[in-house]
């Protein structure tokens, strides 16, 4: 199982156009990765206490849904989270800030995948992959409805990073996909 996203330069993604141009490639690469994991491995919990591929995918879906919903809200409701005070961080800066928080002991919190599905269920694996694809298709559609400058003007709450701009939240979501899937790839190979 090899990720095809290694050839993608996600760290240079910043503009709305960059995001829209690369999102399908990222989702296609992850979809192929999770589809190529056998159901026996997909549901298997590792001995080291980490998450199975199923739990990783469940976490990626669960943690992206609120971001998608935040993009749907009328912009005036986002005033609750304040307005931009500084320039949006780059993908590299978002990644660094997030990893620093993780290394200081912060975790997935409410986005931790619940339950131990130890039953090998190929149909559930297919459904989860379908749900992932569907969520990101809707996510892309919402991003496309935003003006590039508005991605910097409004904030959304991140459970670890606090209130960050919509652009930073989207960049986080892209990095987050890689973060979990690359760790999983290393463990499976």
Could you estimate the helical fraction of the residues in percent?
55-70%
The chain-level mean pLDDT equals 89
Taking the sheet with the most strands, its summary is: 2 strands, antiparallel
What's the Cα radius of gyration? 16 Å
Note the overall shape.
globular
Strand order of the largest sheet: 1-2
Spans of 5+ residues with little confidence (pLDDT < 50)?
none
| Count of extended strands | 2
Number of helices: 7
Features:
189 residues; mainly alpha; two-stranded antiparallel sheet; 57% helix; 4% strand
Question: In a few lines, what is going on in this structure?
Answer:
The protein is mainly alpha-helical.
Topology readout:
Layout: H1 16-35, H2 39-42, H3 53-72, H4 91-103, H5 122-144, H6 150-153, E1 155-158, E2 162-165, H7 166-188
Antiparallel strand pairs: 1-2
Question: What does this molecule look like?
Answer:
The chain is mainly α. Helices cover 57% and strands 4% of the residues. It contains 7 helices and 2 strands. Strands 1-2 form a two-stranded antiparallel ribbon. Helix 1 runs antiparallel to helix 5 and helix 4 packs across helix 7.
């Amino acid at each position: 199982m090899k990720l095809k996203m290694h050839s993608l330069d996600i760290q240079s993604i910043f503009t709305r156009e960059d995001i829209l141009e690369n999102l399908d490639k990222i989702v296609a690469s992850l979809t192929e990765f999770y589809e190529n994991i056998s159901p026996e491995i997909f549901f298997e919990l590792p001995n080291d206490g980490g998450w199975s591929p199923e739990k990783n995918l469940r976490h990626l879906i669960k943690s992206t849904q609120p971001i998608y919903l935040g993009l749907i809200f009328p912009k005036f409701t986002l005033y609750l989270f304040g307005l931009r005070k500084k320039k949006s961080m780059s993908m590299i800066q978002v990644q660094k800030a997030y990893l620093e928080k993780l290394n200081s002991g912060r975790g997935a919190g409410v986005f931790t995948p619940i339950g131990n599905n130890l039953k090998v269920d190929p149909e559930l694996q297919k459904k989860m992959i379908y749900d992932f694809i569907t969520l990101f298709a809707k996510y892309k559609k919402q991003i496309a409805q935003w003006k590039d400058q508005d991605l910097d003007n409004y904030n959304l709450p991140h459970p670890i990073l606090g209130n960050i701009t919509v652009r930073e939240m989207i960049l986080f979501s892209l990095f987050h996909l890689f973060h979990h899937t690359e760790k999983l790839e290393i463990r499976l190979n």
